[in-house]
Design a protein that fits this description.
The chain is an alpha+beta fold. It has a single domain (3-204), classed as Aminopeptidase (3-Layer(aba) Sandwich), CATH 3.40.630.30. Helices cover 35% and strands 32% of the residues. The protein has helices at residues 3-29, 64-70, 76-85, 112-115, 142-156, 171-179, and strands at 31-40, 55-58, 88-94, 97-105, 108-109, 119-120, 125-133, 161-166, 183-193, 196-199, 203-204. The strands form two sheets. Strands 1, 2, 3, 4, 7, 8, 9, 10 and 11 form a nine-stranded mixed beta sheet that branches. A two-stranded antiparallel sheet has the order 5-6. The longest helix has 27 residues, at 3-29. It is globular and about 40 Å long. The relative contact order is 0.20. The structure holds coenzyme A. The site of coenzyme A (COA) has 19 residues, from strand 7, helix 5 and helix 6.
Length: 207
Amino acid sequence: MNDSLWSRVWRTLQDEGLGSFWLKSLDALGYRRLYLLRRSLAEPILDCPTMLPVAIDWLTIEDVQDYIVFRPDASGHDVTQQFLKGDRCLVARHEDRIVGAIWGSSESIHMKRSLGRDLPLAAGEAFQFDAYTLPEVRGMGIAPALSVAWLRHLRDEACVAATLLTVPWNVAALRSHAKAGYRVAAVVRYVRLGPWRYLFPLQQVAP
Ligand SMILES: CC(C)(COP(=O)(O)OP(=O)(O)OC[C@H]1O[C@@H](n2cnc3c(N)ncnc32)[C@H](O)[C@@H]1OP(=O)(O)O)[C@@H](O)C(=O)NCCC(=O)NCCS
């Protein structure tokens, strides 16, 4: 173990506590736990006001370059492929610059990168993924406002519920999604060992 690993361990313990440290250690060893959050669309979808004025709209394939400026870690090719697959992206712009985005799918629970395959969605459900807000405008309610726009859109399409996945230690994500009405519905657990994956049966969480 080198110094930087020790300091990372110490920082995690100090900032997030023993529970989070333990989960991250298991994650590094190949055992991963994810929270499956769910939000029924039968419940009212209340406004989530933002502390920064933003305009929320769909990203179009012509805007991919703007998206790459917002997320330099994304590749234009991958984003275009996502569109071709049928995924949709809502963006929040402040003074014409994208400051936040969320993606959505009506096809599957996207887990190809982590689990090697996608999981099926229940009938009438949709999946939200890859929420991201620029670091300098986090904490201003942008991600919840995007979720609300996505949820209202789904309701208009006669969907019954929305789901998403997050790691248990992503407190900012849990808080943000809770504002839009998402609650932990189940725990997804799997083991990765090289190319081998095993998905445990879903653990339902009592409402
Ligand atoms: C998770 C994320 C999308 C939330 O976006 P957001 O627009 O900041 O959402 P909110 O304004 O509701 O803030 C959520 C929480 O972030 C935390 N937060 C507040 N200010 C923050 C800041 N300056 N920097 C980081 N986090 C902050 C708070 O815990 C806040 O909850 P609270 O308002 O109840 O105190 C954003 O933190 C992000 O892009 N993180 C990196 C990518 C990621 O983890 N995506 C989630 C995938 S499930």
